[in-house]
């Protein structure tokens, strides 16, 4: 061992000791935090009927503050027990009854295919798609600004594992409180202001299976079905309307090779439903919304 190594050894020991103490401190903090999380969860669950929701584990990331709740079971009277693999809470507002900000993932939601067979027609579709089971994932990430009376929905998405994913984002205004939002959405939409928003669908296998099922029922090939759809859209197309042309082109592109489809609006300023209703023509409305459509 040379002289430089001898001199550096005490420093290295001190550094390692400090690092070791920090690791121990972090682990201790996480253990205490996990216990606190479980207490909070149990307190929240005490407000719903006993046995409706239960979980196996709750913890916090070792080097982060994401909260993980795993192996959740949901029991609703009259329905089979449902399982959720994991809920991950990245951030949340625990000071208000309705959180003013929330970023949460719900992963591995069990779905029984028979639950989707709500009528004869749906039963045929579910059987035709031939999915043995569904597991879905949900993401909700939003924040509410009281002063601006705006809610920014950064992401609200649902992914059906092995099928496809739909993702929604929006900027909404004219909201005095989050308690008011359901009323604005379902009863008083005219007061709601809509800003930049989009819906994106990414396909995995759902569209392919729908094409295959429809072609089989019609007694034709998938390629013939696609061409029939393209011909129908082309025949009814108003080439003078650039928005209709853009929509048709994107849809035809998606039919040929179904990967993703996006509809986006970006008005110059947030607009109300009443403003949309006052548009003199569909083309004027699309201009007002600054609509863009794209595929793949």
Q: Helix and strand layout, with pairings?
A:
Blueprint lengths: L2 H43 L7 E2 L2 E4 L6 E8 L7 E11 L8 E11 L8 H10 L4 E12 L4 E11 L3 E10 L7 H6 L6 E11 L2 H13 L3 H14 L6 H15 L3 E6 L5 E2 H5 L4 H8 L1 E5 L1
Antiparallel strand pairs: 1-3, 2-3, 3-4, 4-5, 5-6, 6-7, 7-8, 8-9, 9-10, 9-11, 10-12
Helix pairs in contact: 4-5, 5-6
Main features:
single chain, 296 residues, alpha+beta, 12-stranded antiparallel beta sheet, 12 strands, disordered N terminus
Describe this structure in words.
The structure is a single chain. The protein has about 300 residues and is of the alpha+beta class. The chain has two domains: about 1-90, no CATH class; about 110-135 and about 160-295, no CATH class. About 40% of the residues lie in helices and about 30% in strands. It has eight helices and twelve strands. Strand 7 (about 150-160) and strand 8 form a beta hairpin.
